[in-house]
Amino acid sequence: MSSPAATLTAGSGEAGPPLTATTLTDSNLPRAAAATNAAASDNDLSTLSTQVYLERTVLGVLALALEDVCRTRPPNPVDYLGSYLLRRSTANNTVEVTYEDTLPKVVPTNAE
């Protein structure tokens, strides 16, 4: 019988070590962003496997973004996620706009 801590390995049906997740917070953002930028600056990114490429370039900031979506639970999570990633991106030259500023606003009509 397997221990309660053992988990099934994906697709194999075998018990493996328990999966753990590292909790990333806003205090970890500079470290995650720095690691992402350092890894992305490598000239040989095209030679990496897909998994290694994503781990080095995307997953740190994406994990923070998904945690923020879970914490705030916005009405449109996909737009919120996109806005978060654009605000945290160091590779773009866009003007920072808050998510609330991107929501559609009702314009009053001047009915006389």
From TrEMBL:
Region entry Disordered, spans: 1-24
CC terms in the record's Gene Ontology section: Set1C/COMPASS complex
Stretches with biased composition (Polar residues): 1-10
InterPro entries for this protein: Dpy-30_motif (IPR007858), Sdc1/DPY30 (IPR037856)
Gene3D superfamilies: cAMP-dependent protein kinase regulatory subunit, dimerization-anchoring domain
Superkingdom per UniProt: Eukaryota
Family: Belongs to the dpy-30 family.
Protein name: Dpy-30 motif containing protein
Organism: Leishmania utingensis
